[in-house]
Amino acid sequence: MTQADAALAAELAGEAGRLLVELRERGEFEGKVLGQEGDRIANRFLIERLRAERPDDGILSEESADTAERLAKSRVWIIDPLDGTREYGEGRPDWAVHVGLAIDGVAETGAVALPGFDGGTVLRSDMLAPRVPYDGPPRMLVSRTRPAAEALAVAERLGCELVPMGSAGAKAMAVVLGQAEIYLHSGGQYEWDNCAPVAVARAHGLHCSRIDGSELRYNNRDTYLPDLLICRTEWAEQALGVVAESEPSSKLR
Fold first, then answer.
1. What architecture (CATH level 2) is domain 2-124?
2. What is the pLDDT of residues 88-114, one digit of tens each?
3. The pTM is what?
4. Binding positions for Mg(2+) (predicted)?
5. What would the pLDDT profile of 137-177 be if each residue is shown by its tens digit?
6. How far apart are CA 190 and CA 168, in angstroms?
7. SS3 assignment, position 249
8. Which residues define the annotated binding site for Mg(2+)?
9. N or C terminus: which one in the chain shows less Cβ crowding within 10 Å?
10. Binding site: residue ranges?
């Protein structure tokens, strides 16, 4: 059902994104309150549709109370209804909607909507997006406010140009689209922050792992997944090597 799952993920991510754009354009809310309302509306839409379309699957959402029921499921939808709530509330474009499907712990299928860019781009795991050609020093995506120490170490060693950006999904999709080469994060994330982005990135042939090189696993009891590396394959070994030198693996969860 991979093709149908991917089509559903893309449909839901795109529609949630349109709902969020419409909400922001109405101007009824601002700032933090706008972000909270956006989270609520997008989450309600996604949960209702997933329960209707895939009633036998588990669901894990940032905006819904978690239960142990999903742990017994092979197929679990992992969603972030509004990734980059702060950017969304500030009127910025670098926010996203994540709809991912983990099968037996692996991010197999997903879609990431970028409603603030290009009239509502949706990147998906079953359709390859064109990549912008680039021939220059590697570009590394980092947090707008708190770049990770490991990312800065890698950037210094590899001579990267730093590119600040908001949501995790927006950063991961920038690598998919060829707008950057490396996204390394170690400041703390949860499964919903990267399941859908990893599914899309893997489908596009990118390297995806923890920053110690280990596999990213989903549908865990503890949903904390603090770090990841998404990059073009030619930079993976070097980036992981720098991290290994600067951060002993015993410190990574």
1. 2-Layer Sandwich (3.30)
2. 999 999 999 999 999 999 999 999 999
3. 0.95
4. 62, 80, 82-83, 193
5. 999 999 887 888 899 999 999 999 999 999 999 999 999 99
6. 11
7. helix
8. 62, 80, 82-83, 193
9. C
10. 62, 80, 82-83, 193
